[in-house]
Amino acid sequence: MKLSSRAYSLYDAFSKPGCPVCRLTLDSVHHYLDSLIYEYVNDPDTHQALRAARGLCPVHAWHVQDEINASALGIAVLYEGVIRHLLADMGRIETDGGRRQVSQAQSALAARGPCPACEHQAHVEEHLLRNLLSHIAHAEFAARFRQSAGLCLPHLRRALDLNASAEHKAQMLAIQQAIWGELQAHLAEFIRKHDYRFTAEGFGAEGSSPRRSIEALAGQKGLR
Ligand SMILES: [Zn+2]
Ligand SMILES: [Zn+2]
To answer: Quick check: 180 and 216 in contact, CB under 8 A?
Structure first.
């Protein structure tokens, strides 16, 4: 089976827990934010995009603060520019200023462009989902996908929104239904074993099904 590098990374992620597209997207966004802070601190286009967005969106801003061993200086350099431009666009507000000053400031607070990390994320997600669909007819690829946790609901919806072959979408959906059918059975078994008459049986694979069901419907933590 010959796979593109994106398809191979999917194939590899199928054997890991959770939605494979969430996992690979989170990795990619992490690297993007890491290099944003370290390598693009002096890049005018990066500054421009961040100023237009009024900083990173809350999810990505907190990712930088909490998940990346970011240099505080890198954050300072990028955000000093964001806040300086925000102040300039708000205009000087006098305490006895009128409605015009307030509305100028109000409109200056709005973002003028998307969060650059969200744009990167959307691009990666689309690319991965296109690769998933275009390889789903490969028996070996499909079999490995069947063994995975499947796509989360948000990624399944996005895959179906793509302009791609209906046949490939149907093949993907059939596998996804089998995966969710198994998850639903695990949940039912989990509930059954909580009956005092069966507690002695102990838990198998169904033990992790409550958490897996949260991930299946919400996607992995930290992506949205
Ligand atoms: Zn996902
Ligand atoms: Zn974002």
So the answer is: yes
- What residue ranges do the domains of the chain occupy? 5-218
DSSP-assigned letters across all residues of 65-114: HHHS---HHHHHHHHHHHHHHHHHHH-PPPTT--HHHHHHHHHHHS-SS-
Integer angstrom CA distances of residue 2 from 5, 8, 125, 141: 10, 9, 21, 10
The tokens for 159 are: 């895959």
Q: How far is the CA of 19 from the centre of ligand 1 (A)?
A: 5
Question: What pLDDT, in 10s, does the model give residues 90-146?
Answer: 999 888 878 989 999 999 999 999 999 999 999 999 999 999 999 999 999 999 999
What spacing in Å lies between the alpha carbon of 158 and ligand 1's midpoint? Answer: 10
R_g of the chain computed on alpha carbons: 23
How far does CA 139 lie from the centroid of its chain? 28
Q: How far is the CA of 224 from the centre of ligand 2 (A)?
A: 9
Report pLDDT digits (tens) over 12-46.
999 999 999 999 999 999 999 999 888 877 888 98
CA dist 123 and 119 (Å) reads 6
> Quick one: which ligand is closest to 159's CA?
1
